[in-house]
Amino acid sequence: MTSALKTEYLTINMGPQHPSTHGVIRFILKTDGEIIYECDPDVGYLHRGIEKIAESVTWQGFVPYTDRVDYVCAMNSNLSYCMAVEKLMGMETEIPKRAEYIRVIVSELNRISSHAVAIGAADMDMGAFTPFVHFLREREHINDLLEMACGARLTYNYICIGGVHNDLPPAFLSKTAEFLDHFEIVVEQINRLISYNQIFIKRFANVAVVPPKMAIDYNLVGPNLRGSGIKFDVRKDKPYSVYSDLDFDIPIGSGRAGTLGDCYDRYMVRVEEIRESIKIIRQCLKQIPAGETKAIVKSTIKPPKGHVYFRTETPRGDTGYFLYSDGKTSPTRLKIRTGSFTGMSIIPEIARGVFIADLVAIIGSLDIVAPELDR
Amino acid sequence: MDATLISIGLDPLTAKITSMVIISVIVLLAFVTIGGILTLVERRISGFMQSRLGPNRVGPQGALQWVADGVKLILKEDLIPEGADRKLFRIAPYFCLVGIFGTMVVFPWGKGVIVADLNVGLFYFISITALVVFGVLMAGWSSNNKWSLLGGMRAAAQIVSYEIPVGMSLLVPILISGTLSMGGIMASQGWLPWEWMVFKSPFAVLSFIIFFIGSLAEANRTPFDLPEAESELVSGYCTEYSGFRYAVFFLSEWANLFVLGGLTTSVFLGGGNLPGALEGFTILSVLVYLAKVAVVIFVVIWLRWTLPRFRIDQLMSLSWKYLLPGAFIAFLGQAAYMLLTQHTPIVQSIIAVLMFLVFVFVLIRFGLKVRVSINEQRIPVNSPASNVS
To answer: Which residues, in sequence order, are CB contacts of A7 under 8 Å at separation 6+?
Structure first.
């Protein structure tokens, strides 16, 4: 007997004000009960036209805007932009060694805090609130350290074209070492609390599998790409700054809880990257030389005509700055290529046929940050 | 109380009704107070677990926070969304309230302190709490909000599924004590830990575990808090509620926590039983009972702030594939166990003591593990971050 009852898909609006779409991200879901049939991301709620603003501010004046491109890891954004401008001006070799080390230390510290937020938010989306608060507590320590260095806690504007704004305060290095000793243990404790929890693994394993080929096709970058088992890291493969002098590993996903490239792999890559960052900072603390922290740069810079594309590895992955200069005091065109955007573009593909609860896990594991997505 | 009222000149029927009204009012107020205090307790404990303070401004150590919250909620406007089913929307919270508060009738506060020791007490308990699912489903349906609807549906599926393993696992204590009355079940246990229901046989332990997991799910507590999963469904079935009606949901949720603790304590953990020499000290019995309930509630709150949440399909498979067969095994196993050891009570006692010792051993090992974990931190967890810089 065929049923006379008609069923239809339920269209649900998720966001832009929804607890698990951190920031303002909107999805239009077509669901069959709780199973998602179609997921349509709607981006642009946090678009501030940063790339356009760049055309009307000076080269140095744009540095504070890069803080706002990705406020979870402002140091890394600063670094990306400043190194791009330095490359455009052909002054990469003039940067003092000490400045390069300071840049690496602060950006790795910022990477730790960014990953802490990403992991904590993923935990919170899974219903575990405590690990999130614990990670934020640890992030406070990092914020304090960076405040010591530059006076700001979130948007630093510390790295500048030609080096860093000021030298580190005397106690910074010892305090950082002390923090790392503490944090290494705390990360493991929080892992015991959540990452190795069976319920949590069940929620993340085998969900939203991104096979290596799909990851490349969709141009995933950073931890999302490495979660699919592809060993690519700009710091290692196209080394910039002093990363070529440092010894660290690139953690990749291995399908440790289920399939290669599932949410758990992406999550654990971040956890392991925290450990690698700790390793990097420890080496920097040992190797950091004394000396100048800023090369001599004119107050009004006019880079030569031409264009440059420079990539760095931010916590969200391979972030590229494309600069086009006409030899004027401000860029003629500036384009930022971010990791969140490609992360967002893969969601409709992998969120088909999963539960609404899994979509939350996917957003958490891809670590999408709204301001970086929309810029 | 009837007798007192009759002695001041009321006729028996009026006296009966008057005393019932008085008792109801007392019980209702008691439950409101307990529900309110539990919200505060939960917030303080979660604050402690998360290196923060929790509410500590209203009254000494925030003791009156729940009163302030309640007053605030009552003063708020009671919004009804456009397109809502007004009748259902209005009535839904009271189903939850009645479902939880109805259990008060058979709530054994201590030895002999029970409003009505029904001979089907446990049965009544399970039945009346089933009213909650109506309230939740009505709230979800009538809100005219898709998230609420999903929450309501989840709640209905979850509560109905978990009632079965919970009911099945309660058959074991019924087998052991041979009665359905709450007072009778309590009286069949002793005051020593190995005389408690939970340690009476290996199958009682199994049924206790199943019962505890199942009642967590019925009370919508983490890891089973799917109906109001904040990160998924905004606020589940009570998304659209505000003001007094929201307060009613809120209250019944926390009162449910107390009910959970109370049922666990009186059925499995010896209730308010006292040593023979102290028999008759009712107040002491009530205090013992409340202390045990507090421990159970603490464990529940602890779980809530530690564990992540299940997914709906995992939740269902846990209930139907593991808990329900487990409850069957516990029931049949207990019957066989009682048949085999019915002439040798000494074996039963030895097994009970052994199981208690195993429990103590597990507890000590756990405590040591936690201590190691705490000791290995360099910067103390609760130190303000400013100590770094």
So the answer is: A32
Is-contact A361 A122, C-beta < 8 A? Answer: yes
Q: pLDDT for A120-169, tens place per residue?
A: 888 888 888 888 888 888 888 888 888 888 888 888 888 888 888 888 88
Instruction: Tell me whether A128 touches chain B (CB under 8 Å).
Output: yes
Contacts of B342 (CB under 8 A, 6+ apart): none
CB contact under 8 A, A129 and B379: no
ipTM summary value: 0.81
Question: Average pLDDT over chain A, rounded to whole?
Answer: 85
Contact assignment for A140 to B385 by CB distance below 8 Å: yes
Stretches where chain B sits below pLDDT 50 are 382, 384-385, 388-389
Q: What size, in residues, is chain B?
A: 389
DSSP SS3 for A220: coil
Strands, DSSP E only, in A188-229? none
Structure tokens at B163: 């009632």
> Would you call B388 and A123 a contact, using CB atoms and an 8 Å cutoff?
no
Task: Name the residue with tokens 């243990």.
Answer: A185
Supply angle C-alpha B171, B172, B174, rounded to 5: 65
Distances (CA, A) of B98 to B94, B120, B243: 6, 19, 19
Report which secondary-structure segment, H or E, holds A147: helix A129-150
Tell me what the mean pLDDT of segment A16-22 comes to: 76
- Region of B275 (left: φ > 0; alpha: ψ -120 to 50; beta: rest) is beta
Q: Give the number of residues written for chain A.
A: 375
Whole-prediction pTM: 0.84
DSSP B180: -
The answer to whether the Cα torsion of A364, A366, A370, A372 is positive or negative is positive
Q: Which of A126, A138, A145 to mutate to test the interface with B (most CBs of B within 10 A)?
A: A126
